[in-house]
Amino acid sequence: MDAQSRGRADNIDPADQWVLNPNTGEYELRLNPSGAQSPVPGPRRSARRDNGAAPPRQRGDAPVREPRESEAEVPQPRRRRGAEPEPEPQGRRGGRRPAQKPKKSKAKKVLAWTGGGMALVLVAVGSAGYFYVKHLAGNVATTDVGSVAKKGFSKDGAFNILIIGTDKRTGSGNGGYGDKNSVGHADTNILLHVAKDRTNATAMSIPRDLVVDVPDCESVQPDGTKKIISGTDQVRFNESLGQEGRDAGCTMKTVQAATGIRPDHFMMVDFNAVKTLTSAVGGVEVCLAHPVNDPKSHLDLPQGKSNVEGEQALAFVRTRHSFGNHGDLDRIKAQQQFMGSLMRKMSSGDTLSNPSKLLSLAEAATKALTVDKGIGSVGTLKDVALELKKVPPKNITFLTVPVVDNPADGVIHKTVIVNQTLAPPVFDAINNDVSFTDVKKKEKAAKDAQAARLKGTRSTPAEIRVRIFNGGAKGGSASATLLWMQTEKGILKSENAGNADAEQSKTTLEYAPDQAPQARELAALMGLSGSALKPGESVTNSQGLPTMTLTLGKDFKGAGVSMTAPAKAPKVDNQSTAGTAGCAS
Q1: How far apart are the first and last CA of the chain?
Q2: Exposed, middle or buried by CB within 10 Å (0-12, 13-18, 19+), for 86?
Q3: Cα 53 from chain centroid?
Q4: How high is the pLDDT of residue 342?
Q5: N or C terminus: which one in the chain shows less Cβ crowding within 10 Å?
């Protein structure tokens, strides 16, 4: 019997089965135990100090008593109005009942346990009640990818999760789709970045047909042994998984090599995930700009809005030949619209106030997941979901890696390569935690920091005197920077001092107190952050004149490339947010 029908049988409002556990401060699903059922213990908290003494009473405190071991730690569900009161347990003391907190709405009770952000595979985990967690833990599969993934999940700071949808045809009814013998390639790939302050998130799609260099990677084989799989240059991104026995750790390393962004964790799902998740929420609304009857994907929908679930939902996200130029890039647009709609449905009141639907969603999400060991517990996945809940859907941006057609394909375009003009600013914005949506608080803080850094008197470029050392940057960086300064910026009093005595991770500019105006001007021209400015002493240049010292560290990006994060991320073609609906065309 499901939670909802059971609650009705016991004359209990289903929404009231979500009750506050005073020991954890969180809402839990409380199924009314039958006569043969014993209460499941929660964490216990003693009312006495470690030395056995009772804590001092404060003025206005209610009477304190030690709970008996036989008493349940979690409050019982409230009765429906008019129902017969349950008998008082034997031996229960009388006394004044502690004051109750104001009753929350049904939606708010369940919302306390659900994630409202990038909920494709996460939200349902946070929806599970306390008694259900142990059961769900058995659903989640894990893969050991070694040091490629972080050992655990931190609630502090920004984080990146690589979501991988494989084309492996496992599960009932999936053998008839395309290559039924597929080893499971990285067919759909989304790098999800969640901002440190949780005001925004970015979901960047990586085309499966993007030509990349797959690096060497270590993969754990089925028998537990470890094997180094040699990398392959200039292949499609989807070959970073499955091919030659590569695991998700190889895909994570490929993402970092191609974008410079390191994924902290991965989550992998197969075809069944789309079918089970959409069925669990009662279908997802999609929109088509024209009717589609695609024999290859089996999608058959009219123009306009439709509600899809199960097989039709899977057909929608697989359809390629009926959208745009019949390629993967146009399918990605449709998939992003679909995911935005699924997020909105998962966070809707219709889902949040329905315990039966939430339980189905929790089952579907956890059974669909394979994750790295760092987030392999349901408790950790719940933490991830609750962090995502803090991000407003309107500030979750969907975009795709900027690409161009691969010149190596010739006349018939089959693959794409990274657009070296448009993509680097996108990667830099994600790496520097810059929002792609209009988060005014972040924009104002960035502008204020920039203004504070440049406050004060500045020199002209012609007055700047600087020596340039290479302290760990790419070979030739000092020479290239000298040429850029002299020809592009008019900093003629500059010279190349060769390699520094030791390498350093960060670029620094050291200057004497009377050189502060020169330092501020050079920092502005180069885009150096305030932390790069290093008050100290001047040195003597080749003419015997006092000069500043610029040491290019390992973080140096190239001559003329700004070293600070942009105040605002670049606009990307066809970017959208989870808060808006669109129609696939």
Answers
A1: 43
A2: exposed
A3: 46
A4: 83
A5: N
User: Which tokens sit at 543?
Assistant: 């003419």
Q: Which residue has the tokens 């330092």?
A: 519
Phi, psi of 44 (to 5 degrees): -105, 145
Distance between CA 300 and CA 314 in Å, rounded?
Answer: 12
Higher pLDDT, 365 or 99: 365
Residue 138 vs residues 377, 378, 488: alpha-carbon distances, Å: 9, 9, 62
Q: Name the DSSP letter for residue 303.
A: S
How far apart (Å, rounded) are the C-alpha atoms in residues 297 and 557? Answer: 44
What secondary structure does DSSP assign to 11-65, as a single string? T--GGGGEEEETTTTEEEE-----TT--PPP-----SS-TTSPPPPPPTTPPP--
Distance from CA of residue 222 to its chain's centroid? 29
* pLDDT range class, residue 68, cuts 50, 70, 90: very low
- Helix 311-318 × helix 328-346 angle, to 10°: 140
CB-CB contact of 195 with 225 (8 Å): no
Q: Cβ(109)–Cβ(18) under 8 Å?
A: yes
Looking from the CA of 463 toward its CB, the CA atoms found within 13 Å total 12
Radius of gyration of the chain (CA): 29
CA-to-CA distance for 88 and 63, rounded, in angstroms? 20
Whether residue 328 contacts residue 207, with contact meaning beta carbons closer than 8 Å, is answered with yes
Residue 142 confidence (pLDDT) above 70: yes
Query: What is the C-alpha to C-alpha distance for residues 229 and 439, in angstroms, rounded to an integer?
Result: 43
| Bridge partner list, 141 | 370
**Interior CA angle at 406 toward 400 and 412, to 5°?**
110
SS3 77: coil
pLDDT band for position 476 (50/70/90)? very high
pLDDT of residue 92: 40
Query: What tens digit of pLDDT does each residue of 390-412 get?
Result: 888 888 999 999 999 999 998 88
**Contact between residue 480 and residue 561 where contact means Cβ atoms under 8 Å apart:** no
The 8-class DSSP code of residue 584 comes to B
Q: Are 546 and 538 contacting, i.e. CB atoms less than 8 angstroms apart? A: yes
Contact yes or no for 403/258 (Cβ under 8 A): no
The residue to which tokens 């005595």 are assigned: 501
Q: Are strands 211-214 and 232-236 parallel, antiparallel or unpaired?
A: antiparallel
Mean pLDDT of the chain: 77
Q: Of the ranges 106-115, 297-306, 381-390, 456-465, which is most confident?
A: 297-306
> If you write DSSP's letter for every residue of 456-506 in order, what string do you get?
S----GGG-EEEEEESSSSTTHHHHHHHHHHHHS---EEEEEEE-SS--SS
Residue 551's alpha-carbon distances to 206, 460, 469, 508, 509, in angstroms, are: 35, 21, 5, 5, 6
What are 247-295's pLDDT values in tens digits?
Answer: 999 999 999 999 999 999 999 988 788 888 888 888 889 999 999 999 8
